[in-house]
Protein backbone atom coordinates (compact mmCIF):
# COMPACT_ATOMS: atom_id res chain seq x y z
CA UNK A 1 0.00 0.00 0.00
CA UNK A 2 2.81 2.41 0.82
CA UNK A 3 4.44 1.85 -2.58
CA UNK A 4 1.24 2.47 -4.51
CA UNK A 5 0.56 5.60 -2.47
CA UNK A 6 4.03 6.91 -3.27
CA UNK A 7 3.58 6.07 -6.97
CA UNK A 8 0.24 7.92 -7.00
CA UNK A 9 1.86 10.95 -5.37
CA UNK A 10 4.66 10.96 -7.95
CA UNK A 11 2.12 10.70 -10.79
CA UNK A 12 0.04 13.52 -9.30
CA UNK A 13 3.13 15.72 -8.98
CA UNK A 14 4.06 15.08 -12.63
CA UNK A 15 0.56 15.93 -13.84
CA UNK A 16 0.48 19.15 -11.82
CA UNK A 17 3.90 20.15 -13.14
CA UNK A 18 2.87 19.44 -16.74
CA UNK A 19 -0.32 21.46 -16.33
CA UNK A 20 1.58 24.36 -14.73
CA UNK A 21 4.13 24.33 -17.57
CA UNK A 22 1.36 24.35 -20.18
CA UNK A 23 -0.39 27.21 -18.39
CA UNK A 24 2.83 29.23 -18.30
CA UNK A 25 3.35 28.61 -22.03
CA UNK A 26 -0.11 29.87 -22.97
CA UNK A 27 0.79 33.51 -22.32
CA UNK A 28 2.01 33.81 -25.93
CA UNK A 29 -1.38 32.62 -27.22
CA UNK A 30 -3.96 35.39 -26.96
CA UNK A 31 -6.92 33.36 -28.16
CA UNK A 32 -7.01 30.72 -25.40
CA UNK A 33 -9.04 31.02 -22.22
CA UNK A 34 -8.47 28.44 -19.49
CA UNK A 35 -11.26 27.99 -16.98
CA UNK A 36 -10.94 25.85 -13.87
CA UNK A 37 -13.81 25.00 -11.55
CA UNK A 38 -13.67 23.43 -8.10
CA UNK A 39 -15.73 23.27 -4.96
CA UNK A 40 -12.63 22.38 -2.92
CA UNK A 41 -10.08 25.15 -3.54
CA UNK A 42 -8.30 24.04 -0.38
CA UNK A 43 -7.28 20.80 -2.13
CA UNK A 44 -5.69 22.47 -5.16
CA UNK A 45 -1.90 22.31 -5.37
CA UNK A 46 -0.16 25.61 -4.57
CA UNK A 47 1.63 25.46 -7.93
CA UNK A 48 -1.68 26.08 -9.69
CA UNK A 49 -2.73 28.93 -7.42
CA UNK A 50 0.34 31.10 -7.73
CA UNK A 51 -0.06 34.52 -9.40
CA UNK A 52 -0.14 34.45 -13.18
CA UNK A 53 -1.82 31.07 -13.56
CA UNK A 54 -5.48 31.70 -12.75
CA UNK A 55 -5.78 35.49 -12.88
CA UNK A 56 -9.46 35.89 -12.11
CA UNK A 57 -11.19 34.04 -9.30
CA UNK A 58 -14.97 34.10 -9.06
CA UNK A 59 -16.69 32.69 -6.00
CA UNK A 60 -20.19 31.29 -6.35
CA UNK A 61 -22.02 31.11 -3.05
CA UNK A 62 -24.20 28.22 -2.01
CA UNK A 63 -27.86 28.66 -2.91
CA UNK A 64 -30.19 30.17 -0.32
CA UNK A 65 -33.45 28.42 0.60
CA UNK A 66 -35.28 29.92 -2.37
CA UNK A 67 -32.49 28.83 -4.71
CA UNK A 68 -32.47 25.33 -3.23
CA UNK A 69 -36.24 25.11 -3.77
CA UNK A 70 -35.82 26.13 -7.41
CA UNK A 71 -33.07 23.54 -7.89
CA UNK A 72 -35.20 20.81 -6.29
CA UNK A 73 -38.15 21.80 -8.49
CA UNK A 74 -35.99 21.53 -11.60
CA UNK A 75 -34.49 18.20 -10.51
CA UNK A 76 -37.90 16.66 -9.74
CA UNK A 77 -39.84 18.24 -12.60
CA UNK A 78 -39.77 15.12 -14.81
CA UNK A 79 -40.89 12.83 -11.99
CA UNK A 80 -43.61 15.06 -10.59
CA UNK A 81 -46.62 13.76 -12.48
CA UNK A 82 -46.01 10.06 -12.26
CA UNK A 83 -43.34 9.19 -9.70
CA UNK A 84 -43.36 11.90 -7.02
CA UNK A 85 -45.78 11.06 -4.20
CA UNK A 86 -48.14 13.84 -3.07
CA UNK A 87 -46.57 13.90 0.41
CA UNK A 88 -43.21 15.20 -0.91
CA UNK A 89 -42.71 18.72 0.42
CA UNK A 90 -39.95 20.40 -1.58
CA UNK A 91 -40.22 23.56 0.55
CA UNK A 92 -39.41 21.52 3.67
CA UNK A 93 -36.54 19.79 1.89
CA UNK A 94 -35.15 23.18 0.81
CA UNK A 95 -35.29 24.32 4.45
CA UNK A 96 -33.54 21.14 5.67
CA UNK A 97 -30.70 21.34 3.16
CA UNK A 98 -28.86 24.46 4.29
CA UNK A 99 -25.23 24.44 3.05
CA UNK A 100 -26.11 22.06 0.21
CA UNK A 101 -24.71 22.80 -3.23
CA UNK A 102 -26.61 22.09 -6.43
CA UNK A 103 -24.57 18.90 -6.88
CA UNK A 104 -25.45 17.76 -3.36
CA UNK A 105 -29.14 18.44 -4.01
CA UNK A 106 -28.87 16.35 -7.17
CA UNK A 107 -27.26 13.56 -5.12
CA UNK A 108 -30.14 13.82 -2.64
CA UNK A 109 -32.73 13.42 -5.41
CA UNK A 110 -30.83 10.49 -6.95
CA UNK A 111 -30.47 8.84 -3.55
CA UNK A 112 -34.18 9.24 -2.83
CA UNK A 113 -34.96 7.51 -6.14
CA UNK A 114 -32.65 4.65 -5.10
CA UNK A 115 -34.40 4.43 -1.72
CA UNK A 116 -37.79 4.25 -3.44
CA UNK A 117 -36.54 1.66 -5.90
CA UNK A 118 -35.07 -0.49 -3.09
CA UNK A 119 -38.31 -0.22 -1.14
CA UNK A 120 -40.40 -1.16 -4.21
CA UNK A 121 -38.09 -4.07 -5.05
CA UNK A 122 -38.17 -5.45 -1.51
CA UNK A 123 -41.98 -5.61 -1.47
CA UNK A 124 -41.89 -8.60 -3.82
CA UNK A 125 -38.33 -9.99 -3.61
CA UNK A 126 -39.15 -13.06 -5.70
CA UNK A 127 -40.74 -11.02 -8.49
CA UNK A 128 -38.42 -9.52 -11.10
CA UNK A 129 -38.76 -5.75 -11.39
CA UNK A 130 -41.57 -3.77 -9.84
CA UNK A 131 -44.91 -2.25 -10.72
CA UNK A 132 -44.21 1.07 -12.46
CA UNK A 133 -47.79 2.20 -11.96
CA UNK A 134 -47.52 2.06 -8.17
CA UNK A 135 -43.89 3.23 -7.92
CA UNK A 136 -43.73 6.48 -5.94
CA UNK A 137 -40.88 8.48 -4.42
CA UNK A 138 -42.11 9.56 -0.99
CA UNK A 139 -41.06 12.17 1.52
CA UNK A 140 -39.78 9.29 3.65
CA UNK A 141 -37.43 8.33 0.80
CA UNK A 142 -36.07 11.88 0.72
CA UNK A 143 -35.66 11.98 4.51
CA UNK A 144 -33.91 8.61 4.46
CA UNK A 145 -31.62 9.90 1.70
CA UNK A 146 -30.78 13.02 3.75
CA UNK A 147 -29.03 11.08 6.51
CA UNK A 148 -26.05 9.52 4.71
CA UNK A 149 -25.21 12.68 2.76
CA UNK A 150 -22.32 14.38 4.51
CA UNK A 151 -22.25 17.99 3.39
CA UNK A 152 -18.94 19.86 3.36
CA UNK A 153 -19.13 22.73 5.84
UniProtKB/TrEMBL annotation:
GO terms for biological process: Golgi to plasma membrane protein transport; intra-Golgi vesicle-mediated transport; SNARE complex disassembly. It catalyses: ATP + H2O = ADP + phosphate + H(+). GO terms for molecular function: ATP binding; ATP hydrolysis activity; metal ion binding. Keywords: ATP-binding, Cytoplasm, ER-Golgi transport, Hydrolase, Magnesium, Metal-binding, Nucleotide-binding, Protein transport, Transport. The keyword 4Fe-4S does not apply. It is an enzyme of class 3 (hydrolase). Its cofactor is Mg(2+). InterPro entries: AAA_lid_3, ATPase_AAA_core, P-loop_NTPase, Vesicle-fus_ATPase. Gene3D superfamilies: 1.10.8.60, P-loop containing nucleotide triphosphate hydrolases (3.40.50.300). Residues 7-61 form the ATPase AAA-type core domain. Coiled coil: none annotated. One of its GO terms (cellular component) is Golgi stack. Its EC number is 3.6.4.6. Pfam families: AAA, AAA_lid_3. Belongs to the AAA ATPase family. Required for vesicle-mediated transport. Catalyzes the fusion of transport vesicles within the Golgi cisternae. Is also required for transport from the endoplasmic reticulum to the Golgi stack. Seems to function as a fusion protein required for the delivery of cargo proteins to all compartments of the Golgi stack independent of vesicle origin. This is Vesicle-fusing ATPase.
Amino acid sequence: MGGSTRAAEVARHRIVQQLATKMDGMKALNNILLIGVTNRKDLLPEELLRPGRFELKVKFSLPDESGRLQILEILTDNMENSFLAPDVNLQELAARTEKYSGAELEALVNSSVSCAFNRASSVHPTKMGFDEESFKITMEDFLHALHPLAVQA
